[in-house]
Amino acid sequence: QVQLVESGGGLVQPGGSLRLSCAASGSSFTINAMGWYRQAPGKQRELVAAIRKAGSTTYADSVKGRFTISRDNAKNTVYLQMNSLKLEDIAVYYCNAIVHQVSYWGQGTQVTVSS
Distance from first CA to last CA of the chain, Å, rounded? Predict the structure, then answer.
């Protein structure tokens, strides 16, 4: 079993920055890919960014150039640096990890953008 614990959400003004972290723990495992999804009220959950163990990344078009995903394989931790935040970034952000083709989810962290 893999547990994912997220941190770093909160309230920020438009144009501000936040950094999300997600630490994976559990029995010995190899994480193939980690990523961040988000779900805004009344909308489906969508991929924000993902990073594979080798380091290749994928971003949603809406966040390209503003968000950066990174990971520390030694710590089984993934980060999401979010800059130039907009009102449309308001959502609950979920960490995801793929371990032996099984998908695990964190509990979610709220990101609110407001002036």
Answer: 40
Look up residue 80 and give its two tokens. 């999401």
Question: What single letter denotes the amino acid at residue 97?
Answer: A
- Which residue spans within 14-114 are E strands per DSSP? 18-26, 31-39, 46-52, 57-59, 67-72, 77-82, 91-99, 102-105, 109-113
29-53: pLDDT as tens digits: 778 899 999 999 999 999 999 999 8
Q: Structure tokens of 18?
A: 């936040």
**Encoded amino acid at 48, one letter:** V
Residue type, 17: S
* Contact residues for 101 (Cβ-Cβ < 8 A; gap 6+): 32
Residues 85-99 have pLDDT tens digits of 999 999 999 999 998
Q: For residue 88, is it left (φ>0), alpha (ψ between -120 and 50) or beta?
A: alpha
